[in-house]
What we know:
The complex is a heterotrimer of chains A (145), B (414) and C (502).
Chain A: E1 3-6, H1 16-26, H2 31-35, E2 45-49, E3 52-56, H3 65-69, E4 75-77, E5 83-85, H4 95-99, E6 105-107, E7 114-116, H5 129-133, E8 139-142
Antiparallel strand pairs in A: 1-8, 2-3, 4-5, 6-7
Chain B: E1 3-11, H1 15-27, E2 33-37, H2 49-54, H3 59-62, H4 69-72, E3 75-79, E4 83-87, E5 92-95, E6 100-108, E7 112-114, E8 128-129, H5 134-143, E9 149-153, H6 157-166, E10 172-177, H7 189-201, E11 205-208, E12 212-215, E13 219-222, E14 227-229, E15 232-235, E16 239-241, H8 244-247, E17 257-258, E18 270-272, E19 277-281, E20 286-288, H9 293-307, E21 320-325, E22 328-334, E23 339-344, E24 349-355, E25 358-365, H10 371-380, H11 389-394, H12 403-410
Parallel strand pairs in B: 1-2, 1-6, 2-3, 6-18, 8-15, 9-10, 9-15, 10-11, 17-19
Antiparallel strand pairs in B: 4-5, 5-6, 7-16, 12-13, 13-14, 19-20, 21-22, 22-25, 23-24, 24-25
Helix pairs in contact in B: 1-9
Chain C: E1 9-13, H1 23-27, E2 33-36, E3 41-44, H2 54-58, E4 64-68, H3 81-93, E5 98-99, E6 114-116, E7 137-139, E8 147-148, E9 154-155, E10 162-164, E11 168-170, H4 180-193, E12 197-198, E13 215-219, H5 228-233, E14 236-240, E15 251-253, H6 260-266, E16 274-276, H7 286-299, E17 306-311, H8 316-325, E18 330-334, E19 343-344, H9 345-350, H10 355-368, E20 376-380, H11 386-395, E21 399-402, H12 404-409, H13 432-435, H14 440-465, H15 470-473, E22 480-482, H16 487-493, E23 496-497
Parallel strand pairs in C: 11-21, 12-13, 13-14, 14-17, 17-18, 18-20, 20-21, 22-23
Antiparallel strand pairs in C: 1-4, 2-3, 5-19, 6-22, 7-10, 8-9, 15-16
Helix pairs in contact in C: 4-14, 8-10, 11-14
Amino acid sequence: MKRIYVNEKWCLGCHLCEYECAFAATGLSDMAKALKGKKIYPKITVEDGGSVHFAVNCRHCTDAICVKSCISGALSKGEDGVVRIDKNKCVGCLTCVLVCPFGAVMPAPDGHAAMKCQLCTDNACGTPNCVAHCPNNAIVYEERP
Amino acid sequence: MKTQIFRYVIVGNSTAAAAAIEGIRETDGEGSIAVVGEEKHFVYGRPLISYYLLGATDAERMRYRPADFYEKMKVNAMLGVRAEKTDPAKKMVRLSDGKVLGYEKLLVATGSRPFDPPVKGIESVKERFHFMTMDDALALEKALSPEKRVLIIGAGLIGLKCLEGIAARVKSVAVVDMAGRILPSILDEYGAAIVQRTLEEKGAEFYLSDSVAELESDAAHLQSGKTVPFDILVVAVGVRPNTELVKDAGGETGRGIAVDERSRTSLPDVYAAGDCTECFDVTSGQRKILALLPNAYLQGHCAGVNMAGGEEVFDNAAPFNSIGFFGTHVLTAGSYSGERYVEKGDNAYKVLFTADGVLKGFILVNLPERAGIYTSLVRGRTPLAEVDFSLLERAPELMAFSAGARREKLAREV
Amino acid sequence: MNIYIQPDYEVVRNSDQCIACRVCERQCANGVHSFDPDTGKMKADSTRCVNCHRCVCLCPTHALKIVKSDDTYKINANWDNQTVNEVYRQANTGGVLLSSMGNPKPFPVFWDKMLVNASQVTNPPIDPLREPMETRLWLGKRTAKVERDEKGRLKNTLAPQLKLDVPILFSAMSYGSISYNAHESLARAAEELGTYYNTGEGGLHRDFYRYGKNTIVQVASGRFGVHKDYLEAAAAVEIKMGQGAKPGIGGHLPGAKISADVSETRMIPQGVDAISPAPHHDIYSIEDLRQLVYSLKEATEYKKPVIVKIAAVHNAAAIASGIARSGADIIAIDGYRGGTGAAPTRIRDNVGIPIELALAQVDERLRQEGIRDEVSILVGGSVRSSADVVKAIALGADACYIGTAALLALGCHLCRSCHTGKCNWGIATQEPELVKRLNPDVGYKRLVNLVTAWNHEIQEMMGGMGINSIEALRGNRLMLRGIGLTDTELRLLGIRYAGESL
């Protein structure tokens, strides 16, 4: 399946992806209106270490430990391979946060659920918004072995 | 009576059972499956019962799998019956309704049951509940009302989740425990104190290093001499694995049913998974009962795949637990031995335990972010020589891994 | 005492739009932007801004713009602000003013004073979407003698040629002045486009030998990076006698830009300034030049064309005549608006002549002397569009070098600060953190896009003129008319005024 990959070599650590991710989740068309004065809760995390930068979001693991560990059945892997979280079922126990080896599942801002990248299948973006707006093609959406 | 024969018989209908069904169907799309569940309910997430009382979920949303799960998985679900006896020689299971099921492969996923402490007068308490199953929660819920006082015996995970679930629905909740701190199995003094403060802010009262000497129908007399009046008693002192189906048939059991890394018991074609088993904890090097939902799933799935003739090995079992109380999140994993790295905050706490060149375990209170990176180090027994531990002390980061290891993790399909 | 100099440009932030994401701060190597935790707002220090527009382009809410400062000294047509500030700057530091990229002064641009013809009625235009339209061409000597072997078969006496699928090449830009990633982008684009890029005098990085058949290697006065493999790797060798942006002077790459990789590629010490002398110390005459031309031909077994590149100067025509007679296969002429990674400002802005005039004169002179076919002519030094290419070819060029336009395609915003080595677009820098901002996967595609688009436009214009081969456009000055030009300019360009029929 197509997944998001981040090429560390080209990641500039600009953190635009984090804002684009948070923006995509709002469903609004004006980023300033959507995010101004707000703390953002992106589902992609940029790590910076000196000259090394890379973004991390859900790997949509073939054998997803978060899905296996979910106490409420809120996490599932769809036939399209996308690991999704049903916020309605999630009780916010954060077991998924505890088990994700990539640190790619995070507590949602309301404190009552977890959240994660769903490859922008949960909004109207089409191409994942982090990919579409990465200024250096460091984030790509493609099939890899 | 006529014996019904199934290719797979699964005794128990909780997480391990659902996982086994999924494991079987990944390998064998057609072989007949029977699930025998003592509870009448559709498979649900057991740990959700406190959230049910809290109002954070309901019976509909508690379904562990979609409503068409049994149908889609072609499972014959026999709910509300108990499996009473197995005969591994004849490959048969006798049920409480008199039916006998024949199997080619049997999974015992019977879980555990709570026990009562041997306290004088306990029988006299009418409003006395356990807190394990949906039926327990429904029974308890009927008894709840705003003027009632609740006493919980046991300040462990079950007792305190129960506390969280009911605190807003009753007049008061008191907790008594022999241990000197709450959540003694997963927290040390400092971490426990943070959680205790959170619970006390919600009105809970604690009697620690104390125990119930005698019970009356509406009061508990403690060893310390104190008396705690109550209307409702919740007993959450511990559970015992339901090992009988295997033990009585001559299978090897310790405290739980003994299983290997393919979830096999010592009986031929009999597998076991979940809270009824004991398995090898890689962080302590000991056989343990890891009564945790993720562990039940992983064991159950492994059992299912192997029962259906596939190959799956589950050999990195470890305790890990994420639990929250009124927004205070406690994430822990592994075993607490070796050198400690400690960070203390007013309302946050971090301890990392290192020994033998690996991360053995950790305690995180109110620091949930990206904790899974630590968990993966614990479960993977990753040599710390391969990571930058000074970065990991600060926060869980993939930056701590080598560029090559990061490529392995991030640049290919996983 | 240093006199404070007000910045020419100001960073303006629309605070209603700014979400304080700090992308501008992270992307500015000059430290213009910062976050003020007390106010929770972003600040900008315009005195540090070079107006490269990196922040403007990356700002996700388009909250930034950069405007010309309206701060002014008393209006003075003679002593304008910039002139005054340059005096202050030199009085402050005692230094030579340095600049980069091409001459920004408001000199006439002759490309914009020439108009292209189109066919009507009597000679029909050609639709390039329906009919063949050839932009492929060859560079090199076209003076083959007809000779036959003892069996009477024709002998191939044609000198080596460079085949171009488009009449556009990428100008010489050295590794050192521009980044590894910029070079990779140029090399890959040249390969895909079927044309050439030019190493400049920075040597050829070992990683880029694989693009050798699309590479022109340069031999300049510093001889940096020149060795046997370098010459053998290339498709052609260019002797650099001069550069349009700084005629008459050599080059100077500051030690700070000489990284380990650059050092190895140039075969010079790391961290030490690399000085290319103004002249080649072995060339003081056409005869000396001929020696180097033939040395290089000898070294490459007469298999590769040799280019001689000069800056467009007053006597360009006579010099070109000499070059044509030195044995060179191609003459490259670089106009005074051509770019540079660093040049003294006074040289850049005041020395040399426009490429349009130099080209017209060189082509005319070589024709008059009957040696035009001895050489091909390449021109550069501010070819800005496909229209400039068409006009250059009609004036007599075989093909055009583009440098600045190529850098723009890679993201350059012409801030003219290359000499600081802190290019925010990852082009004119060797700082790894900045270099990585130019992903060649992106860069090369943008170059391919640009040249492909230009080539389409060239075909359209050729079709309009009723010409279906770029070779037929070369030197076809009847296709050009001048507008707003003096008689002298028309004479030098060899074209008639707009409205004048044949």
